[in-house]
Specification:
Elements lengths: L5 H17 L6 H5 L22 H21 L6 H19 L5
Helix pairs in contact: 1-3, 1-4, 3-4
Length: 106
């Protein structure tokens, strides 16, 4: 990837963030509200939790969802004032889909 490919960098950064969020441990809000201060976990690493691990299919689903979201937003941007933004979103979706299709399809 070229160092100046801002479209690809933008798409990949956002997708990495989405993957990071997908691997986050779900927080049970009700359990957090009922804990008194003296009952809270103490010590180094007491509040650490093992992150979820996505399967290859799960990663593909997140990447496809990110690409679909970009295409959906681009389709709604129909005015001439938004043409550049729509083109950028379509280009970002193409970058993401190219990663799913494999290395020989670009």
């Amino acid at each position: 990837m070229r160092a100046r490919d801002r479209v690809a960098v933008s798409a990949l950064r956002a997708t990495l963030a989405a993957l990071d969020n997908a691997e986050a441990v779900p927080v049970d809000e009700a359990a957090l509200r009922g804990v008194a201060l003296e009952q809270s976990p103490v010590g180094a690493g007491a509040t650490e939790a093992v992150r979820c691990e996505l399967s290859e299919r799960g990663v593909e689903d997140v990447v496809r969802a990110e690409a679909a979201e970009r295409l959906s937003v681009a389709a709604r941007l129909t005015g001439p004032a938004h043409a550049d933004r729509a083109a950028r979103l379509r280009a970002e979706a193409a970058v993401l889909l190219r990663f799913l299709d494999g290395p020989g399809t670009a």
